[in-house]
Amino acid sequence: MNKQKRAKHQWTRTALTAVIVGIVLLLFAQVAVAVQDTGKYHYKMISSIEYSGKGQFKNRTESLFTVGKEPLSDNKVQYSIWTDDAGSDAGSDSLGFGRVSFVLDWANREIVTSNGNLSFFQTIHNHCAQSLENVTAANIGKTWKQSFDLSFLDASLPSELKLTVTAVDLKTDVLGDMIAVRALSEPFTFETTGIEDKTGKVNCKVNSVYLFDPSVEQIYMSISVFEATTNVNGFKERVRHELATYMTDSAAIPVDFTGLGKKFEKLVRKVGLTNKDMKVTKPTSLPRWVRRDALRVIGLADTCAALACEGAPNPVVSVCIPAGRMVAMQGLGHIAGSSQLGTIATSLAKDIGPIGSMKIAVAPGIMGLSSMQAGAIAGGTAGGVAAGGGGGGGSDGVRSPAAP
């Protein structure tokens, strides 16, 4: 490998590592900011990314995390997030994640961090937090609309995201009263570049659901599904990211969710967790349009959906940004996936007793994309796509998350 190629390879890895750090910080910011008492809180995350085109890519993995809170002066709080994978509070693991932190300014509902790699995510959150139009805690039993104007971003990101939000109250046997909030997006698009620098549209949708305490201040569970399809390379391609997090104790045992019933099951089914395991008949890497643009869009879309779910009139619960800590490294194949995990729905059913008897997953196509796109998704999930490469071609052109 010559010097130019080595430098380019190193830059690509550095940029994507920044994506990882930014995404995990904001993923667990949703949990940390929601916790109102000082201490440590433990969570498990299961992440899955799949691609199908003229070949398939699949990576599913899981990880444990801790979040901590430290009150500061001037109505500010510092939150720290570290992985438990190495079994140490030092927060250092084989993935190089370490410990990250940010400050929440309750006066203006904004997060502040000195880490330049996180500026993109900080910009998105702080912009969208000011656009919240409804108080979730005051709209239990109702459905409302929430939109985010993203026109200040470049064309490789959506210009607007519109969501329909529904909040319901639940009663559980151990945790008591709970609030579940779901956000379903309208289809949206972004521009990307494929083979031979041809440009085209990518059609997307994101759905999320959150399980909160009655004051919508503490998160116990979150599930998010993102799907995108395109013909930018002259054939049907699809990428899908599923993410689930739930609270555990220090030994990684889930909190007792006994009592979640049909109302929660019905709410989750529309999020679109798949009930079919993707078959890889011709392995490939992720194409350029996924690595270059779709990974950023996943973080952006999840952020908006989470903020819509945890909408509030004050800074107490203003930050709710789900995304996948490992999505970038999963996308590059730098994390070994586990074939034993199965689908996210299967993993949840195995880990959380009450979910095991629920029909929370659905067949492909529920995301509300066009019939052509749903067909491409169904084909990929059923393993019906074969032959060929990933369609990436050319330079990665991976964007730094530091600059929207």
Summarize this, please?
Helices cover 25% and strands 30% of the residues. With 404 residues, it is an alpha+beta fold.
Q: What's the Cα radius of gyration?
A: 20 Å
Question: Helix/strand/pairing class, anyone?
Answer: alpha+beta
- H-E order: HEEEEEHEEEEEEEHHHHHH
Shape: globular
Q: What helical percentage do the residues reach?
A: 25-40%
* Biggest beta sheet attributes: 12 strands, antiparallel
- Distance, first to last CA: 31 Å
Strand content: 25-35%
Number of strands: 12
Residue-averaged pLDDT, rounded?
A: 75
Q: What is the number of helices? A: 8
Low-confidence spans: pLDDT under 50, at least 5 residues?
Answer: 3-17, 28-37, 86-96, 313-325, 368-404
Describe this structure in words.
By secondary structure, the chain is an alpha+beta fold. It has a domain at about 45-65 and about 130-380. About 25% of the residues lie in helices and about 30% in strands. It is globular and about 55 Å long.
What topology emerges from the helices and strands here?
Elements: H1 3-34, E1 40-52, E2 56-71, E3 76-83, E4 99-105, E5 110-112, H2 119-129, E6 143-149, E7 160-172, E8 176-185, E9 188-193, E10 199-212, E11 219-230, E12 237-248, H3 262-269, H4 288-309, H5 327-332, H6 344-351, H7 353-356, H8 371-382
Antiparallel strand pairs: 1-2, 1-12, 2-3, 3-4, 4-5, 6-7, 7-8, 8-10, 9-10, 10-11, 11-12
Helix pairs in contact: 1-4, 2-4
